[in-house]
Write a structure and sequence with these properties.
Length: about 200
C-alpha cells in the first residue's frame, strides 16, 4: 500500500498555510490518515536546521545543501514511512521551493539543485503540488501586516518576482502534478478551489 504525497508551494504571503486545516479535514473525512509536515523542518533535526536557515546569513550554496540535508532526514524518518503505510503526506513546501528560492531568486545553478534532488529523492516526487499564486504586490502587502519577518521575508520586490517566475516555470515544466491556485481571491473562493483539487486526488 502506498499513500500520496501532496506539497504546498508559493511565495511568502501567498497564504498557503491557511489552507492546511481544510486539506487535512477533507482527507480525514474520507477516512485517510494524514501526516502534516513542513520544510525546512518536519523532524527534530530539521527544525534545528530551520532555525539556522531562517535566521542566519550564510553562503547560498551552504543554504542549498542544508535544505537538502534537512530534506534527507525528513524523507527518511517521516515522509517515506508514512507513504509506505498508506498515509497521505501533506508537506508545506518541498524541493520546488529550493528551485524557486535558492536557484530562481538567489542564482544557484539549477543543475546543482537537480544533482541534489537526484541524490536525495530520485524516486520520490509529489503526486500533487498546489501552487498558491499571487501578484508580488499582494504578497508584499500581506507580509507587511504579518508577524516579524524571517530573513527570506525581508527581501525586496525583485527577489519575490524571481520566486514567482521560477515557481510558474516549475509548474509549466511539470503540468501533471502542479495545480496553480489563484490565491488573489477571497479566502472562501480559494478554499473552494483547494477542496476541488483535493477531492479528485
Ligand atoms: P514558510 O514556509 O513561508 O513558513 P512560515 O509560514 O512559517 O514563514 O517559511 C519557510 C521559508 O523557507 C520561506 O521563506 C521559503 C524558505 N525556503 C527556501 O528558501 N528553500 C527551501 O527549499 C524551502 C523548503 C524553504
Amino acid at each position: 500500500m502506498t499513500g500520496k504525497f501532496i506539497t504546498l508551494e508559493g511565495m511568502d504571503g501567498a497564504g498557503k498555510s491557511t489552507h492546511i486545516p481544510t486539506i487535512i479535514a477533507a482527507l480525514q473525512a474520507r477516512g485517510i490518515e494524514v501526516v502534516s509536515t513542513r520544510e525546512p523542518g518536519g523532524t527534530a533535526l530539521g527544525e534545528r536546521l530551520r532555525e539556522l536557515l531562517l535566521h542566519e546569513n550564510m553562503h547560498v550554496e551552504t543554504e542549498t545543501l542544508l535544505m537538502f540535508a534537512a530534506r534527507r532526514e525528513h524523507i527518511a524518518s517521516i515522509i517515506a514511512p508514512a507513504l509506505a503505510r498508506g498515509a497521505y503526506v501533506l508537506s508545506d513546501r518541498f524541493t520546488d521551493a529550493t528551485y524557486a528560492y535558492q536557484s530562481g531568486a538567489k542564482g544557484v545553478a539549477a543543475v546543482k539543485v537537480e544533482l541534489l534532488e537526484q541524490w536525495v529523492h530520485a524516486d520520490l516526487q509529489p503526486d500533487l503540488t498546489l501552487l498558491f499564486d499571487v501578484p508580488v504586490e499582494v504578497s508584499i502587502q500581506r507580509l507587511a501586516t504579518a508577524r516579524s519577518p524571517d530573513k527570506f521575508e525581508r527581501e525586496d520586490a525583485g527577489f519575490f518576482m524571481r520566486i514567482r517566475q521560477a515557481y510558474l516555470q516549475r509548474a509549466q515544466q511539470n503540468p501533471a502534478r502542479f495545480r496553480i491556485i489563484d490565491a488573489n481571491r477571497s479566502l472562501e473562493d480559494v478554499k473552494k478551489s483547494v477542496e476541488d483539487e483535493i477531492s479528485i486526488l
